[in-house]
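user: can you give me the structure for this one chain? tokens are fine.
assistant: on it. calling the predictor now.
[tool input]
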Amino acid sequence: MITAAASVLTSIPSPTVSYFDLWDGGPRIHFYALCIITGIVFAALLTNRRLTKRGAEPWVVIDIALLAVPLAIIAARIYHVLTHSDFYFGEGANPLSALYIWEGGIAIYGALIGGAVGAWLGCRWTGIRFWTFADALAPGLLLAQAIGRFGNWFNQELFGLPTDVPWGLEIDYDNPAFPPGLAEGTLFHPTFLYEVLWNGLGVLVLLWAGRKLSMQWGRLFALYLIWYSAGRIVWESIRIDPSDIIFGLRTNVWAAIFGVLIGLVLLIVQRRRHPGLEPSPYVPGREWHAEGTLQSQDTDDFVDVSEPLTSK
């Protein structure tokens, strides 16, 4: 049995600040936003590397992100507000706070919906196959989610049930999120950390699966949905922040269950429809060729034409 004193000595402290001002009266920078932006940057870098290795134009990911990222953030906020409606539109609430995204509150599943729409539009614009982009993005998306969860740590939000485990999370007693009726010094499950570790492991699993199992045509993205959602079912079930309840389960638990099911269906359907490999990261007629190279119509092999072609 771990004593309260021992728990405090080995617990995880929460940051004492969640923002800083560039100068007195100047712009206020929230660590939550910095974590989200950092995650997006790392996801773009990893996705660019993976797309380029497939033969796509370097940094075409930026063209797609210009549509996908804003729509993902907007949809993530809308999803969060709709699933926590009493917090923003209930008695005594300030409806304008629904716009205060810097205070936290964006939902991953909303981001996936909005991001998917934006990515589809971006792929139509650039000629990249949508499923090629989704597969290239999958590991980077998990990495971004892992980094973004540190924003919840800075905001002291979205923690789990009270616990006496050595890695319990400290929450300021005067924090509005601190559950009433609990003693000062109570520790909580650090669900942000659980998800960071789960997502980090998932990045390695997806990179391995993509390389060793040649999962294309959206199958790697399907594995992402299954992996992330399976973990989310667990973490979401022990969170104690307010949430709408449907048939005894939090809305995000239901979303995670649907995420697993959609991933399984996508994995099965795409495996049956496309048993082979993608011939190109581009849709037919929209191919991009690096200067001095020609790409075969049937393979991903490139032929250097910077020198005259001769028979051998």
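assistant: here you go. The chain has one domain: 28-304. Residues 28-304 form one domain.
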